Amino acid sequence: MGRGVLTPPPHKHPSIDGRAADPSHREGNRGAATPHRKASAVASTNTVVRPGSTKSRTSRWAPTARKLTPYAFLSPTVIVMLVLMLIPVIMVIGYSFMDNVITNKNPVFVGIDNYVEVLSDPVFRTATGNTLFFTLVSVAAHLLLGLGFAMLLNSPLVGNVTKALFRVVYILPWLFTVAIIAVLWRLMLNPNGVVNYLLISLGLTDKGIEWLSSPDTALLAVTFINIWAGYSFYMVTLLAGLQGVPADLYEAARVDGASAFQRFWNVTLPQLKPIIISMSVLDIIWTSQQFALIWMTTGGGPVNVTEMLSTYTYKLAFSRYEFSVASASAVLILLLTMVLAFFYVRHQKARD
Amino acid sequence: MTTFAQKQSPAVRTTPDGARRSPAQKPRRRPKERLAKVVIIVLLLTGAAFAAFPIIWMASSSFKPNTEIFAYPPQLITSNFSFDAYITILTDPAKVRFFINSYVVSLAVTALTLLVAILASYAFSRYEFKGKRPINMIIVSIQAVPPITLLIPFFGLMVVLGLYNTYQGLILTYLVFTLPYAIIMMTGYFNTLPKELDEAARMDGAGPLTVLWRILVPISIPGIVSVGVYTFMIAWNEYLFALTLTRTEDMRTVPIGIQLLMGQNSYEWNEMMAMSILGCIPVLILFLFFQRYFIGGMTAGAVKS
User: Fold this and answer.
1) ipTM confidence
2) Where are the transmembrane segments (chain B) (predicted)?
C-alpha cells in the first residue's frame, strides 16, 4: 500500500531492517530523540496506555504506545465491522442450519435440509441461469460501450470543450438511482410508451410490444435497462486509463507503420488490460447482486423469467417468511461471490 | 494545446526532419481526417441520444398532465405544460417527509463515514503494524459481500436491538457499505501526501491526532470531498435495506417513496417523474459542483496512479 508515488525517498527506509517496523526513524540522530519521546507521550494518552511520568519510563513505554496507536485509530472501523459484518455473517450461516428462525422463538437444528431444499428448487436453478445471463451480457455490453465512448472522447480530432460536454451527457445515466431508472424505463417501455412509438414509426414492429410483461422479452428488457444504467462507470475509468497511456508508445507504433486498428490492438488494449480486468470483476460482483432494478420493473416475473438470485432470496424471506431457507440461499450467494472476490483481490495484489 | 496537437495529430508529425515539406501530403490527409471527424461526431451524437433521451423524456413527462402521458403521437413539449406534478408533491407533507428522511440519513452516514474512515486511513497510511495486511485484505473483500446475504440477519438484529424502523438502524447499516470503499480511497489519498509533512510536525512535538487534524486533514480536502460525495450518493440511492428495515410511511426514503407512488391503483406517472427529478437533484448538484472529485471517486477503484 505504502508504495505511492510520493512516499519518502529510499534513504529514509533502512529502519525497516527486520525488527518490528517503527515509524520513528531518524538514523543516528540523537537530537531528534526528544521530540519523538514527546510525540509518543501524547500518543499514550490517546491509547490509554499509562501516563508517562519520568523520562526513563516514557522511553520504556514509548514503543508500546507507538505500537498501539494504529490500533486505536482502527478501533472504530473494527468495531463497526465486527458488529455489522462478522456477526451478521455468522448469524446467517447459523440460520441456514436451523428451522423457523425469526418467526419461531425456539428454532431447531436441521443440518443441511435447507440447502437441499434450495438446491433442488427448480426456481433456484432458473434464477441462477437468469443471473448468469443478466450479468454476463450486462458486463460485456458495459465494457464495449464504455470503451467505445471513452475512445470517442479521447479522440484528438474533437475539441476539448465538445469532449467535456459529451462526457457530462454520457455520465448522466450513472447519476440516477436505480429506483428512478426503474420507474423511468417502465414509462418508456410501456406498450403505449415512446419506445414502442419510435419502433412503430420506423416500421420495425406493427404493434406495441409489452417489453416488461411478456416472457419472451422481459429478461432482455431488464438487461438492456441495466446496460444503459451502468456503462458510464467503465467509460469514465477507461477514459482515465486511456489518458494515462504514454504517447510515445503510439509514436513508436506509428513509426513501425502500424494501422489504427493495430495500434488499438497492440498498444491500447494491453495498456488497459489491468483496468479492464479489475473493473469487469467488480462489475460482475455488483451486477450479480442487482435487486432494486428487477424488483421495481418486473418483480422477477412474468413466470420467473427475470427471477434473479437476489429476488428469489428476498421473496423466500419476506414474501413466504421462510427465513431459514432464504438464509441457505443467501449463504450460497455469499460463497459464489467470495470466489469472485478472491480473484479480484489476487488480481489487485498482482498489480501492487 | 499546440504540444498536444503535435503529439497526437499525424498530419503534423509525418515529416521527421521538421522541414515544411508536407504541402504535398496535406491535401491527401485532410479529407481523410475530415471524414474521420464527421464519423466521430455522428457517433458521439448517437451515443448522446442513447444516454440522454430517457432523461429528457423523464423531464418532459413531469411537466405533462397525467392524461397526456401516453398521448399519440407522443409530444416532447406539451401545450398543457405545467408544474402541477411538482406542486402536488411539494405540498404533500407525507411526500416531503421522504426527502427529509433521505437527507437526514445520507448526511449522517456521510459524516460518520468520513470520521471513521479518516482515522482508519491514517493508521493504514502512516503506520506499520502487525495485522495490517490481513485487516486491509478483509476491508477490500468486505466490499464484495452481497447485500442480500446481510439482509436477513440485519432484519433480525435490528428488531432485537430496537432499531427497526429508525434512522439509527438505517445509518448503521449504510456504514457497512460505505466504510470499506471510503477507507481504501482515503488511504490512497493520504499515501500521495509526503510523510515529511507529519514528521516535521512531530519534531515540533505534535501528537498523532494533532498531526492528523491540523496537518493532513486540511490538505486532504479534495480527497475528503470525493469520498464524501460518493458516500452521500451510495446512501441517497440505497434501496434494499431502506425497503426492508423501515415499515411506516413516515420513515421511508425517496427511492421507496417513488415506489409507493407506483403501488397505488392508478399510476400518477407525471408525479412519479416529478419526484424522480426532485430525487436526483442533490446528486446532480453534487456532480456539477464537484465533477472533478466525482470522477476521481469513480476511477479510484480501478485506476492506479
Assistant:
1) 0.82
2) 35-57, 103-125, 137-164, 170-190, 211-236, 272-290
Cross-chain CB nearest to B154 (options A38, A88, A288): A88
Residues of chain B found within 8 Å of residue A43, distances taken between Cβ atoms = 207-208
Cα angle, residue A84 at apex, residues A82 and A90 outer, rounded to 5°: 75
- Confirm or reject contact between A321 and chain B (CB < 8 A): no
The verdict on a CB contact (< 8 Å) between B258 and A183 is yes
Listed in sequence order, the residues at least 6 apart from A227 whose beta carbon sits closer than 8 Å to its beta carbon are A137, A138, A141, A142, A145
The whole domain housing B124 covers 85-300
Quick one: which of B154, B179, B141 has its CA closest to A337?
B141
Could you tell me if B204 lies within 8 Å of chain A, comparing CB atoms?
yes
pLDDT tens digits in sequence order for chain A, 352 residues long: 333 322 233 333 333 333 333 333 333 333 333 334 333 333 333 434 344 444 444 556 667 777 888 999 999 999 999 888 999 999 999 999 988 777 777 788 888 999 999 999 999 999 999 999 999 999 999 999 999 999 999 988 888 899 889 998 999 998 888 999 999 999 999 988 999 999 998 988 888 888 998 999 999 999 999 999 999 989 988 998 898 888 888 888 888 888 888 888 988 999 999 889 888 988 998 899 999 999 999 988 888 999 999 999 999 999 998 899 999 999 999 999 888 888 877 877 777 6
**In this complex, is the C-beta atom of A312 within 8 Å of any C-beta atom belonging to chain B?**
no
Domain annotation for chain A: domains and CATH numbers? 116-351 (1.10.3720.10)
Residue of A nearest to B11 (CA): A157
Task: State whether B119 and B182 are in the same domain.
Answer: yes
Q: Determine, yes or no, domain membership for B12.
A: no
If one counts the domains in chain B, the total is: 2
B14, B149, B219: which to substitute to probe chain A, counting the most A Cβ within 10 Å? B149
A98 beta partners: A109
The answer to whether residues B107 and B57 belong to one domain is: no
Q: Which cell goes with A69? A: 496507536
Whether residues B178 and B280 share a domain: the answer is yes
Q: Which amino acid is at A283?
A: D
Q: Are residues B218 and B104 in the same domain?
A: yes
Of A169, A137, A163, the closest CA to residue A151 belongs to A163
- Chain B residues inside the 8 Å CB shell of A309: 148
Closest CA to B4 of A250, A275, A264, A253: A250
